[in-house]
Amino acid sequence: MKTTLALLLNSPDLLLTFPWINNQEARVNTLFSVINPYTGDTVAEVGAADSELTAQAIEASENAFSHWKQVAPKQRVAILNRWSQLLLENVDDLAKIMTSESGKVFSQAQGEITHCANMLRWYGESLLRMTGETLPSHSANLRAHTIKQPLGVVACITPWNFPAAAVIVKAGAAIAAGNVCVLKPSDETPLIALALAKLASKAGLPDGVFNVLPCQNPEAVGDVLCAHNSVRMLSFTGSTNTGKKLYEQCGKTLKRLAFELGGNAPFIVFDDADIDLVVQNAISARFYNSGQICVGANRFFIHESIHDKFIETLTAAVQQLPVGDPMAESTFIGPMINDRAVTRLNGLITDSLNKGAKLVLGDVSSNEHGVISPVILSNMNASMTAYSQEIFGPIVCVYSFNSEDDVIAAANDTDAGLAAYVFSQNYSRLLRLSESLEAGAIGANTTALFSEDIPFGGIKQSGIGKEQGIHGLEEFVDTKAVCLGIETSN
Ligand code: NAD
């Protein structure tokens, strides 16, 4: 029987519900439910991979590697381009799948798929420019050069908040560079990962190059991926706590690691900033994906002389944001991923109010359909949990400051180092702060940090390595030195 979601799709065959190994479904007996966060309905019953199936997927990918690493880069690029094209041709179906399982609003889900298509194209173009070097020789009878080679089996573990982009940024780059992949998506969002894999096979990706293992208990798959000697690398995006656990587990086989973890971004506004520009960026940095973003503006530090004007202008703008059904075209803020998230966010609001915060905007009594209407809290201070914890929801927390040195110290007063934003019309100040703020990505008079050609990644406890850009592709290759002894005369 077709599910309700299948009836909404132009190509219902994109709706896979079993682990995907060797370009086919692995029919398992244990199922788990994927729930629509807005309606509470079951979107699909999905087959759960276990440790035995994980070992089989690793073996399938090892077998595929012996062929895939020999495929000429131009042929790989042709497959990536077809894959990219198929994403664009199926953008609405893919967005419906994503919205149904994650609650991401439809227009943003469409945007995420387009970004995925751009990434696949860009990785292909960059792959053709990824070259080795001829090195100056230190000896007359030695010649040396470097070559870049794929690693082999790359494990990818991805979160629910960018359930397509996190898959493509990893698997797209790894596969472009000649590796093979075993991916474990979040148990909240397995369907979009499976649909992307299905389109890869339609694009001509050979059997075993990209395998996807949904599961409800993450350890069932994760423990095998981390322990297996043939898995050369783990590319992980998720919370810092999970990252620390996986870091330890991967130590035993000393895998290469690329980790994208949680953030606690400061959003600093000086008294000379353009307030309209600030408010427009504050909305995208706090309310995009209903606030569930790693680079979300967690702590708004506003210069005391413009504090009241900022709150007034922001409140007026936020009141206009359409909130509700994520499938509706105009909606900007949809539901939280699950009830646990709603409870956690209400806890953060209560903790702040109990410690002296002022509720400027928000009805904290109603969370129908898992939706939290925008909340603005002022009078925040460092004793509140929201100061040090990633908020991950539509809550603006406003702190005030009066000196550049103080605000830099407060902004850096966190273990996280993912993104930081600063707004001012003084370009010397923007440059000073870009150098002083401890974050892997700085937005100076902008919050647009994401593009396929710009490297992204955290420092401190927000991550290891980069994604996107040429740096992102380079994470997935070994640079091998080749030294050739020669006779200087014949
Ligand atoms: P999470 O850490 O709970 O889960 C992430 C993934 O890890 C999921 O697939 C989950 O099933 C898996 N996982 C959890 N425990 C595991 C274990 N013991 N072994 C193997 N796998 C395990 O994170 P989440 O709630 O899905 O995502 C939200 C978090 O991700 C936030 O902290 C956010 O900041 C972060 N994030 C970071 C970036 C970035 O680029 N830095 C991007 C998106 C999300």
What does the model show?
The structure is a single chain. This protein has about 500 residues and is an alpha/beta fold. The protein folds into 2 domains: about 1-260 and about 465-480, Aldehyde Dehydrogenase, Chain A, domain 1, CATH 3.40.605; about 265-450, Aldehyde Dehydrogenase, Chain A, domain 2 (3-Layer(aba) Sandwich), CATH 3.40.309.10. The chain is built from 16 helices and 20 strands. It has helices spanning about 5-10, 50-70, 75-90, 90-100, 105-125, 165-175, 190-200, 220-225, 240-250, 275-285, 305-320, 340-355, 385-390, 405-410, 425-435, 470-475, and strands spanning about 20, 25, 30-35, 40-45, 135, 140-150, 155, 180-185, 210, 230-235, 255-260, 265-270, 295-305, 360, 375-380, 395-400, 420-425, 440-445, 465, 475-485. The strands form 5 sheets. The chain has a 7-stranded mixed β-sheet, sandwiched between helices. It has a 6-stranded mixed β-sheet with strand order 9-8-7-10-11-19, with helices on both faces. A 3-stranded antiparallel β-sheet has the order 5-6-20, with no helix packed on it. The radius of gyration is 24 Å and the shape is globular. The N and C termini lie far apart (about 75 Å). Nicotinamide-adenine-dinucleotide binds next to helix 8 and helix 9. Nicotinamide-adenine-dinucleotide (NAD) binds next to helix 8 and helix 9.
